[in-house]
Amino acid sequence: MTDLFEKNKVIVALDGMKFVQVSALVDELKDYVWGFKFNDLLFHPAINILLQREDVRYFVDAKLHDIPNTVKNQVKRIVGEYNPSLLTVHASGGPKMLEAAVKAVEEEKGRTRILAVTVLTSINDDTSQQIYGATASEKVAEFAKISAEAGVYGCVCSPHEIGLVRELNLQPVVPGIRPVWFSQTDDQSRVATPEMAIREGAAAIVVGRAITKSENMIEAAQKTSAETII
Fold first, then answer.
1. Fewer Cβ neighbours under 10 Å: the N or C end of the chain?
2. Is 63 one of the annotated active-site residues of the chain?
3. DSSP letter assigned to residue 148
4. Which CATH number fits domain 10-226: 3.30.70.660, 3.30.457.10, 3.20.20.70, 3.20.20.30?
């Protein structure tokens, strides 16, 4: 399987942005980053205008989680309509649901690769214990194992669990990234710099506000990409 991130490892998260801002932002940044992650914008009625562009790569962060047949139908619809490069489902949906997502892509003959979301980067160990009865790392290891067995492409995990995902031959796609020049605090708990994540084995990093809230987004994207070159 070809390396999706051979030339660039920076995915820009467009969460929380207004649709009217996004098209111009995509045009401005598309030559400086790997591509763009959509989440809440998936519900915008005109999102297909962007997702059907062939000159831009997309990560559809749908975080699907339902019974296997429902997830299979949802994946088939997304792949059939948009054929994004990446699409997320929750690992907590279990092995049959993950297998259904992978099979749906195969049946649609799409290019889409399935990522299993493990433990959200906003969750610290105390909260993980409350939810799962295990630390975040323990739960990520469990989720990564069932993801590997289901045949997904990779896992979404925090920088702290990259090694747990890599050792199962899965591609770690990593949010919770804070470039060294970006000092703003936010709602993430398990974070790292781009260089730290790449050294640990991240296939790609997801960066939002550090780039999208910058006065010079191109410069911010270039500086972030430079931190991934080790």
1. N
2. yes
3. H
4. 3.20.20.70
